[in-house]
């Protein structure tokens, strides 16, 4: 078994608790126009054309045995409850290889996390092998979710409910994007949805829209369609966060 990986590296507390080794897996079933890692969207990879460099394919293939050994060798770096995180793209697009690797890591005592859009029909099969489940909730409305991501919200909704019921640690993240999901009506619907999902095992977090992926879109030869209207203010994030906490919901602390 192999994994298609387009990026890997360490960061602290951004993609799960503590210091983590993060693998970005190739392929995504969503087509979000604001994606910060667009090169990870096509299953077959993207051709990246960086200035003064030869074009290259976005990913490389690694046997899972090799990835497993690399992770074990990094164990001394997993301080403050850290470990390994599989992100994307969409990590569950490479489901079988991911599941096998997560099993091995669990047996080896490595703290595991995945970042997922929550659409895979078999997501709950990974629950026993994932210590920290980080799921996106991009929109509350079925039609708008389909419009902006290419995937119906119903798929995400069912997995969010399962995870909230069954997983010991679920972190739900919502990217707040101007003109997409930031209206007062959107905020109220999100809050009602969050209340439905709340529990001692569930936290919520807001992510402010940014343009960090714009250059990558250009290097892939694609148009970056987001405009200035997509930006939200610090005040919007603060107000939404306060409303989450006023409802008695847990806001994730970095």
TrEMBL record:
Residues 14-243 form the Radical SAM core domain. InterPro entries: Aldolase_TIM (IPR013785), Organic_radical-activating (IPR034457), Organic_radical_activase (IPR012839), rSAM (IPR007197), rSAM_sf (IPR058240). Its cofactor is [4Fe-4S] cluster. Keywords: 4Fe-4S, Iron, Iron-sulfur, Metal-binding, S-adenosyl-L-methionine. The keyword Hydrolase does not apply. It comes from the Bacteria. One of its GO terms (molecular function) is oxidoreductase activity. This is Radical SAM protein. It comes from Merdimonas faecis.
